[in-house]
Amino acid sequence: MIYLDVTKSAESRHQSGLMRVSGRLREELGDTCQPVIWRGGWIDQRSGRPAELSRVDWLLTPELFSESERPGWWSFLKNPSCRTAAIFHDAIPLRFPSVTWPQSVARQPEYMKMLAWFDRVLAVSRASMDDLVHFWKWQGTEPRGTVTTLQLGSDFVRQPRPAAENPTPSDIATFLCLGIVEPRKHQEFLVDVAEELLRRKLAFRMEFIGRVNPHFGGAIARRLKSFGRSHPEVRHRTRVSDEELLGLWRRSRATLFPTLAEGCGLPLLESLWLGVPCVCSDLPVLRENADGGGCSALPNTDVMAWASELQRLISDDGHCAGLRKEALQRPLPTWGKTAEAVREILEVVG
Length: 350
Hints:
Elements: E1 2-5, H1 17-29, E2 33-38, E3 42-44, E4 58-61, H2 73-78, E5 83-88, H3 92-95, H4 102-115, E6 120-123, H5 126-139, E7 146-149, E8 174-178, H6 187-199, E9 205-209, H7 218-230, E10 234-237, H8 242-251, E11 254-257, H9 266-273, E12 278-281, H10 284-290, E13 295-298, H11 303-315, H12 317-329, H13 335-346
Parallel strand pairs: 1-2, 1-4, 4-5, 5-6, 6-7, 8-9, 8-11, 9-10, 11-12, 12-13
Antiparallel strand pairs: 2-3
Helix pairs in contact: 1-13, 6-11
């Protein structure tokens, strides 16, 4: 049996990447998975009674943790009653502390040290795995178990993949940017790109969807709002319905993902699943998936390069159709396959 740690995800109101990973794994693991919550010991989420984890079971956690958040956690890791596995997302709080939630920055070093005590660590990309291994070496830590990569799924939107190429949208060119508004997601850079497109007298819409990071996103949200007053081509909304979001996706010529750092880059994969090209940062972590087709990977500091690529997508239907065709024809991972990979790594029969 796989006991899935849902201590935080069971209570979260936000659909962050981490919460989405936890939710989809729980669905796809099905009967081989039992959700549990840490309360100084493991509690069965469904019954509220203590969970009896044995030596043949696995505890799988996709969550973040520290001893202060989970009293008794160090003791459990050093003397577990079962086999243990963790999904590692990224080292962003260590690499970008100035624009990361203070609690996350404080937690990260201990969290990454704790991962060395797991029997299996499943990193969501090669880049994340390298960051974790390098951290352990820097700390002089010898991990107890093994670390490998886990390919996350692209079908989070729970929509069937288009069977054939959609015609290029015929109305005004629309671009969609999804994600929490904060410096790391780099939405302010796209305002600079929009300004350049307007200087070139191009017709387009740029839609931003995402809640605002209360620590770091305020200034960016204000700029989006101010720019949108003068230029209605650019609009930011903190949330829309699932139906409206799916409609925006399908009307878009491309999604925009100029992020400064990621663990995997789920928005890129999810865009490709719907046959929508993605213009993204040329970060190594994103190129792990972008280089397969359907994407334009560009430096996330080059306004002119981004403006020129968006101009081409606006004015060259052939270029847009070519990227859409690449997105539709390339193989993409599903969450079902991710769950299969987890079972295989943990040697659990489905």
